[in-house]
Design a protein that fits this description.
Elements (H helix, E strand, L loop, with lengths): L4 H10 L3 E3 L13 H13 L4 E4 L11 H12 L5 E5 L3 H10 L4 E4 L6 H12 L3 E6 L6 H8 L4 E7 L4 H13 L3 E4 L5 H6 L4 E4 L6 H12 L3 H18 L7 H11 L23 H8 L2
Helix pairs in contact: 2-3, 4-5, 6-7, 9-10, 10-12
């Protein structure tokens, strides 16, 4: 199908960019400080994020109440950068709200049932360009992916398959063959996924230490292979400490990193929806990665 003009504009706008998927800082009782949230978002943008993917997996969007979701989108949109809103359990209603609040697109969470029909329902209801999502917890069969990326409202596809290198390569190839934007969400295969053809990034590892991620994209866009290798190695050291078993604990670890950097106070460095972790220990790779830039 022919690509809708709205989706084409978002595809072209996001090409070559780093879209940070921020966490949603909150207290141990689940309170969200909106002014703090604005400062946190603004800091990510100031340090290299070209846009924000709020309410995504890292932002725990599916767990947040509607009023909090709306406030998160509003604070991100106010910064004037591209904003992608994650939509999941009530995807149609959530996409409609995102459109009303000025989001530029939606990241459609994988769901049980007919995934192609799910994307069509979101498109019909909201008319916002969609980023499809191939996530490690619910990988999508290649035949279904081809149908999804063929949808006129799909601007691109984010792959986040974690440890499946061959699956990542296939997903990127399917996306590019359809003329859509191949977006890496591969925090543990970031450099390789760029070499495999990813043209933009939407990653939770940029929820903190965002400069370390942006350096990889800058180096990849240049011609200095050694610089790219060094930047990728720094990011990998960070990912080894934060994106590790239990994998869902990465959100808490990235919040700790954000607190270590002074992006958020310790009082708001809590993930209420991940697995229990060992007592907090310093993420030494963060210090190393930043110091060796």
């Amino acid at each position: 199908m022919a690509l809708d003009a709205r989706a084409a504009r978002l595809r072209d706008r996001l090409r070559g960019t780093l879209i940070a998927a921020p966490a949603t800082p909150m207290t141990a009782t689940g309170e969200v400080d909106l002014d703090l949230l604005s400062r946190y978002f603004a800091g990510l943008v100031a340090d290299g994020a070209d846009g924000l993917a709020v309410l995504a997996h890292t932002g725990r969007g599916p767990f947040l109440p509607p009023e909090t979701r709306a406030a998160v989108i509003e604070r991100a949109v106010a910064l004037g950068v591209p904003v992608i809103a994650g939509v999941g359990g009530s995807a149609v209603e959530e996409a409609q709200v995102a459109a009303e609040l000025g989001a530029d697109g939606v990241l459609v969470f994988p769901a049980e049932g007919d995934r192609v029909a799910g994307h069509e329902a979101v498109w019909e209801a909201a008319g916002l360009p969609m980023i499809a999502f191939d996530l490690y917890t619910m990988p999508c069969p290649p035949a279904v992916l081809r149908k999804i990326v063929d949808h006129p409202g799909v601007a691109g596809l984010k792959t986040a398959l974690l440890a499946d290198a061959m699956g990542c390569q296939e997903t990127i190839a399917i996306t590019r063959q359809a003329g859509k934007l191949a977006i890496t969400g591969e925090d543990r295969m970031f450099g390789p996924s760029l070499l495999w053809g990813a043209e933009a990034a939407l990653v939770g590892i940029a929820a903190a230490a965002v400069e370390v991620t942006k350096d990889v994209l800058r180096a990849f866009a240049g011609s200095d292979l050694r610089r790219f290798d060094q930047a990728s190695a720094r990011l990998d050291r960070l990912a080894e400490q934060t994106f590790t078993a239990p994998m869902e604990g990465y959100v808490q670890r990235m919040l700790w990193v954000a607190a270590d950097e002074g992006r958020i106070p310790e009082s708001h460095a809590f993930d209420l929806y991940g697995p229990p972790l060992e007592a907090r220990r310093p993420v030494e790779a963060v210090i190393t990665a930043v110091q060796e830039r």
